[in-house]
Amino acid sequence: MADEIPWERLFEEALRVRLRAHVPYSRFPVGAAVLYADGSVVAGCNVENATYGLTVCAERNAFAAGVAQGRQKPVAVAVVVDTPEPCPPCGMCRQVMAEFAGPDIPVRSRTLNGGEARYSLGELLPHAFTGAFL
After folding, report:
1. Which helix (H) or strand (E) holds 15?
2. Residue 3 has what pLDDT?
3. Among this protein's residues, is 59 annotated catalytic?
4. Greater confidence, 55 or 1?
5. 29 vs 8, 59, 105, 127, 134, CA distance in Å?
6. Which of 48, 59, 99, 123 is the catalytic position?
């Protein structure tokens, strides 16, 4: 399945939306794009708030936008960051991904210089808390 994923399209969308990030405090813009089974791509950027706890990451914004658009079955996630090394999604984002996708969903992080890291959600969050526990 990973060979069929249009990764360049996902990274282009994540890079594009990253430019819209609202990051006056951290100055750390992040863009994310989620590919859904129907072929649609939903992007999100991080949005900070003066009360830092209300800040929302790019990945969570992309998934929330997908929910708002009625999208189902995410199949891949791409993240773009401006760091020397690719960085994975934070723990909160991993948990949100686990709400909507299984452990096999591929997650890739790319830097502006083209460095890339590849993961599965199961590698990033091996013991996810899911609705199965409720």
Report:
1. helix 7-18
2. 66
3. yes
4. 55
5. 19, 12, 24, 28, 35
6. 59
